[in-house]
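Office hours follow-up: a student asked to see two folded examples consecutively, so here they are.
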Amino acid sequence: MVHDDILLVGFGAVGVIYALILSKTPSTRVTVIARGNFDKVSTKGIHIKSKRHGDIPGWKPDRVVSSVAEAADRAYKYVLIATKALPDVNPTPAILAPLLTEEYSKQYASPTFVILQNGLGVEKDLYAAAELSWKAKPRLLSAAVYIQANLVGERDIVEQGPFDRLVCGVYRPGLLVDDNPKNTPEETEQLEAFAEFIRAGNGEIELVPDIQRKKFAKNLW
């Protein structure tokens, strides 16, 4: 079987739930980067207590690594970023640095980057870095995340309420909240391809042409 390799960076509560959702598609092979809880996750897994996805003790993704450098050994269809948005402290390009090197970009095609962070303007630096690495327009999706989930215990239990929902759109640099964009056929195809994986894993997703406006509304929610 040809696998769709997916990398998820940030294995907190949000990351765990979306790693679970993406792993439900038989063709996917999900790699997660678990730093603070690597030892526990790699040996015992995560106990997911979800009112939406069920009670799943000892769940593990296909591969658990402790660093982005360790994960930079293959091409990925999607790279999801579910870390906290701290651009002034730990910018996303710094977190993903091993995937943005000249060596990596020459060996592997660019993934579609998916930012699962609710902050405003968090896409800008990654877009610029990816464009520089691959010398081409990046494929970058951004999402507003609506979820009730917490990492508890010794960072080895995730408790989730009855819903998880992504509002997802294509990031366009320079677009203002008040602009009224329309998705091109190519952008619609990009969004629908990602949405198929989310829906197949019993996740809810809404695709929109104006993600900056939706994220602005989410930050006021």
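And the second, which I mentioned at the end of office hours:
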Amino acid sequence: MNSARWWRLALWPVVTLGAVVVAWSYSIAATHDAGDTVHYAVFWLGVLLVTAPTFVVAGSRRIGVGTRLAWLLGYAAFTFVPKLLRNPSLPLYYDEVAHWRQSADLTASGTLYQPNALISIIADFPGLHILTAAVGATTGLSTWHSAEIVFFAAHVIALLGAVSLGEAVFGSLRAGAIVGLFYSLNSSFLYFDTEFGYESLGMVFFIWCLACVGWMYRARTRRARLAWTAAAALLGIAVVPVHHLSSLFLFLALAFVTVAALLTRHSRETQQEAHGPLWEKLLVLGLLAGMIVLWFTAAAPHTATYLSPYFQGGFSQLGRLWSGTGNGRTLYSASSNPKYEQLFAFVAPALVGLLALAGILGFLRRRRRAAAGADYAVWSPMRIGLSAYGLLYFLALPFILTASGAEGARRSWGFSYLGLAVLVTPVVLALLDSPRWTGTVRRRRAVGTASVCAGCVVLIGNVSAGLDGDYRFPGPYVFGSDTRSVTPEGVAAAQWLARSVGGRQKILADRYAGLLFVRDAASWPATPSPGFPAYDLYFSEGKPSDALVAELATSGYTYMIIDDRMATQQPAQGEYFGPGEPNHPPTPGALSQYTHDPWTTLVYQSDHYSIYRFDFAAIDAHVTGSTP
């Protein structure tokens, strides 16, 4: 049996075995003791069973087109499995609950732009919710299972888009496969960009718009150029109603490419990639810019207000950190991740940095190299622009040390890694193909093995840096965790409220109970802040301020949910409600006072949860601790 046939036959058994091992790791995690990390090792065994041979197939010069594409499809399907198995039947992640509720409400009412209880901005970007509702209406499936279909397809299509982009830039499916696989090593690919969230869909438009632009640059006829230009323009316009960051990062990437095209339009090196008039290259960027301005002004006017605290806070905190006047985040503080994951999280940027440096040196030395028949030696506008764009990854790295900028930095890596993939792919191919390194069978195997191992290290490190273990694995109850605070007791309390008084009730609850009540009771939890300190009802004993009472009453808040563990346990995520809350836990007296106050009536109680109904008209009748 020849090797190509062996690879084709091995694909689906390997993918199936990998999925079974990942499922086994989740079974171990669900019953593991605190501090036990064996499930991490089993998980990575399952993932690398598929990832390592896919790396081999992608880099091999002896593998045919059909086998290479089959392995890429199998890899794309497999990398959806970890998130699918994490919560196969209901939303679990914070963003997922928000988007699921938005889609379910759209399906039930048919009304767009309904306010969202958890993430206000998503109501202004309804593309995902429209698509999910449409799939549900067509198939008859639930909102959740409709979304799973959407995101499985999106995940596979996104990876194929990265492969297509690489093929457009380098003229080789082998190079495209390496671009796609390197992109898949980013911290978001395995979990964050497979969740029920608008970035997961926006990423598809982001990647395929760039792929179409790449093919536009490569097209040799006017008809082909116009077709690719039209496709890119439609994808660019379509991403804007889906996701704000995908739109902005796409604009940034296209701007880099367009500037590269303008700067190199008279260069002999880029003539074979510079067919067509300049307006074709400016059209996609201009239409995208116009759509962003139109949508952000007319349909989503609060986008800048929503995003600016992350940017301003991140830059401000980073400035104080560098000047020595502020403190940064301690990475992996109180983390349960095994030491090798933590080590690889620091090694991964260093490895990628070395590859990027080699790519930059290749650009600086480009005129010394012959371009004889090899697209890897040609620095086209797409290659130059996307490579420069990919370097934004390194600019974002320091922000991981700031509280406000860390989340934004992680979000940006999924986008910038596509540019990095374009920058480093020729370096990887040079290592795999250079006679200096692969002149003998032994050297060739050593270089191939080292390359696969380096890719696995980057994957493990990036996933570890991108998501906490509580999000990645099931396990025992953890107070103050978005994903580990869900218990049958909490679900029963939420379902009781839904049955007794119906949905859309405005409630007070901590972040974690609130998330559960949004999902299972369609409730509307308050968003406390220094200007609306609803958390005072949990942290202070005695009558709340008149201003707070007036705001609660006029806003229609009806119920208060109390989890008595707030007084005895620190939240794993470091906050009970959010920014601005007091820096001490609630006292048992502050939580139990409402049992005796006439303006709060206990309507439900379980081992840990109590639900009170407000009667603000009776608040002055008696206050706990006062004289009747």
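Two things to take away from it. The chain has a mean pLDDT of 91. The chain is about 60% helix and 5% strand.
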